[in-house]
Write a structure and sequence with these properties.
Chain A is α/β, with parallel strands linked by helices. Chain A has helices at about 5-15, 40-50, 85-100, 115-120, 150-160, 185-195, 210-215, 220-225, 245-250, 260-270, 315-325, 350-360, 380-385, 390-395, 445-455, 460-470, and strands at about 15, 25-30, 30-35, 60, 105, 130, 145-150, 165, 170-175, 205-210, 235-240, 280-285, 295, 305, 340-345, 370-375, 400, 420-425, 440-445. Chain B has a single domain (about 5-190), classed as Aconitase, domain 4 (Alpha-Beta Barrel), CATH 3.20.19.10. The interface between A and B is large, with 85 and 60 residues.
Chain lengths: ~475, ~200
Amino acid sequence: MSARTLFEKVWDAHVVVAETGDTPAVLYVDLHLVHEVTSPQAFSELRQRGLQLRRPDRVLATLDHSTPTLPAGSDGERPYTNDEAKAQVSLLEANCREFGVALHGWDSADRGIVHVIGPELGATQPGMTIVCGDSHTSTHGAFGALAFGIGTTEVGHVMATQCLLQRKPKTLAIHVDGTLPVGVGAKDLILHIIGTIGVDGGTGHVIEYRGAAIEALSMEERMTVCNMSIEAGARAGLIAPDETTFAWLKGRPQAPQGKAWEASVNVWRSLRSDADARFDREVRIDAGAVKPTVTYGTHPGMAIAMDAPVPAARNAQERRALDYMQSEAGKPMQGTPVDVVFIGSCTNARLSDLREAANVLRGRRVAAGVRMLVVPGSEAVRRDAEREGLHEVFTAAGAEWRMPGCSMCIAMNGDMAQPGQLVVSTSNRNFEGRQGKGARTVLASPATAAASALAGRIADPREYLVEVAA
Amino acid sequence: MKPVTRIHSRTAVLADENIDTDRIIPARFLTTTTRDGLGKLCFHDWRYLADGCDNPDFPLNQPQASGCAILVAGRNFGCGSSREHAPWALLDFGIQAVLCSEIADIFRNNALKNGLLAIMVSAAEHQWLLEHPGIELSIDVRGQFIELPDGGRIVFQLEPFARHCLLNGVDQLGYLLQHETAIAQYEQQPDHFTQEQAA
């Protein structure tokens, strides 16, 4: 067989019916992630057609988007933002009961953001096809899985057939050479990459991130990178599995155990692009040139080093973006006054992200007038963080420590900013109104978000980390 | 899905590039559990002022945009989330086709599965369409061309299966279910990469 990319190896292994000129491939789905927002209409479709859910054993369902991050009151009532949000959650609970799906719901010790708990449970494994009615499904590509977001019609297709109709996408290799400077992390890197290739730079492609700087990333950092592939328009982004991957997965509840583990690792080692495999496009990025990076406009491609001048608007929509953000061309984002800081989301709410923020905050206080929310990605992250005392670091600094969920990343559970407020956020989208109508979002790493909370202005975390080292 | 063969309408233009799914329908409205009645929420935060009145600066609030079923949008329309609420909202609002030089992948998939024509044209044709709001167009799905008022044509590509489904109102889930035998056979094989059976 001719040389193949990692993506092609995973794709080929899941083709049930090959594509032709007239018809797309029928592609098998190993793992279907389900949450309350994009599933109700798909369950309704099954019910109307009298269909069963084909493989409930291949579904991982949880509650994350519409769920409050404040605990239930003394009356046991959860503080939903409205009745519709509550009804949506209740409906997923009912649908899971009716269709035989094990829901990681309110009573589960595993509940959390679906893209955080899939890997935590070991459900996400190398070489799998993974889909979800959520564009940040690309996160799971960090394990060498082909993982992408789908719409609700396709959610119904997977529920009924465990398959999707798909045309094979193109491939884009992003080589990241060199070493990230001290104090610069995966979030800075992916913002830099999107700023370089553009918000549509990956459209029609599956990305493979590769090179020395990618191999050096921890598993959680790799998830941060792959998570934001969709922000460059790519439905999926993959990283070849290696010893870092295997060490992270080993022993997790749904990962293979014993001899099955050894046998799986042996096969997973073959999940790399062949040396002479061809990509449709290739891009090279120098990790050494990446600085603490933030966004200055209203899409994730409008990203620059925080100390670099904001570029002048080249057209009407860039002017609109700068006006909305109140960003001033020629001035750096560093120093911009901050109203709210959000640490959370499927991009940056894992334990290492919380540690990164806590290392900056420890023994210090959030600036007067700044509201800071820290929302762990899952119950497991919450437990681990509390075991380390990170929650005490956050609350002592003046931040709010919340229950797991998507929270202010998508702002549909009531956690939101007020019109005009500037939010430094570790999430993935800085679209107009994303964090509340009129709210202005600056995307940043957990360290930058924490430093900005302390300074009350967008600040370079390296200034705080140096003090700790000294 | 009802067959979609031809759409005839004047165009309305939203020239902004990168109109994301949060602008098409803000996330706070995604607590709905049906796909109906989302038209009133379409472009909500752009279309209405804080007091709930129509924003006179929103292009689709202009009298000449009223009744237009064809939207010419700036490059990279529909970027962002996978929410199918975006095409549902556009269709309920009265938009039946979006013309653009580049459309985000997930949005385009979702749109075509709902009979919303998401059609990509060349950069030059796109620019011309952006500069000529309100012209009468006829989109012919079978012939894969857009007829201009002067009789000229813009030819476009459409993925053959999506075109077939649009023209014949094919139910894609029904089509997938016809592959039951192949799916069942595939499921007989052990997983390719994870080796559970070695245990």
